[in-house]
Amino acid sequence: MREAVSLLGMVLKSSPVGEYDRRLVILTRERGKITAFARGAKRPGNALMAAGRPFVFGDFKLYEGRDSYSLASAEVKNYFTEIVGDVEAACYGSYFLEFADYYGRENVEAAELLLLLYQSMRALLKPALPNALVRLVFELRAMAACGEYTARPPKPVSDSASYAWEFIIASPLESLYTFVLKDGVQRELRECVEMNKRRFIDREFKSLGILRELQK
Questions:
Q1: pLDDT tens-digit map of 104-144
Q2: Residue 64, SS3 per DSSP
Q3: 144 and 126 in contact (C-beta within 8 Å)?
Q4: Cα dihedral 132, 99, 204, 149 sign
């Protein structure tokens, strides 16, 4: 009989398969991005129903197949229901999931990216932190975690914006969301992060388009 593996992760995507199953994309600490099938997860009362939704973070017990995994059970540590219940926060959170899906790789450990994703979801729940700043921090640190960044801002900026750039890249993840910026400094940082994204990212994100429409 196959031996189950236990992986810490967060559900990035969930889509229906057939009448009762769901296909999940999970970013895991140990094995990066994986595909898993939750059999019967659409059946009312099924034990896998609650775990088969985006934003769910926890320990997933899975059986490994040739090209995918089968989800046996999950110990959920956080559902992030507060994010799901807030339209703007849900748009930001969905964008973070899509961004992590873009950078996640199969069979490549993703401890830093997963912890960043988790900390960023928690940051969205802090009223003192502007969601737009959380987004900038997440984007820059995610790109830095994957080696796609410049050590200094890509254009001349104020000392405060330059310090913020370097702080985001180098600080422990637990310390990332411990500051706010003045409007002018945040604007400078946003321009630099956008320049970095244009240099390294070759796609548009659907959830970001929805967020922009929401904010109009």
A1: 999 899 999 999 999 999 999 999 999 999 999 999 999 99
A2: strand
A3: no
A4: positive
C-alpha span between 60 and 22 (Å, rounded): 15
Tell me the pairing of strands 32-38 and 69-78: parallel
- Among residues 26, 34, 8, 11, the alpha carbon closest in space to that of 111 is found at 8
* Start and end residues for every CATH 2.40.50.140 domain found in the chain: 5-78
71 membership: H or E segment, kind and range? strand 69-78
DSSP 4-53: PEEEEEEEEEEEEETTTEEEEEEEETTTEEEEEEETTTTSTT-TTTTTSS
- Give the CATH number of domain 5-78: 2.40.50.140
What is the tens place of the pLDDT at every residue in 141-193? 999 999 999 999 999 999 999 999 999 999 999 999 999 999 999 999 999 99
Structural class in CATH, domain 82-215: mainly alpha
Q: Are 21 and 40 in contact (CB under 8 A)?
A: yes
DSSP state of 106: B
Q: What does each C-alpha distance from 57 to 29, 52, 78, 120, 142 come to in angstroms? A: 11, 10, 5, 13, 18
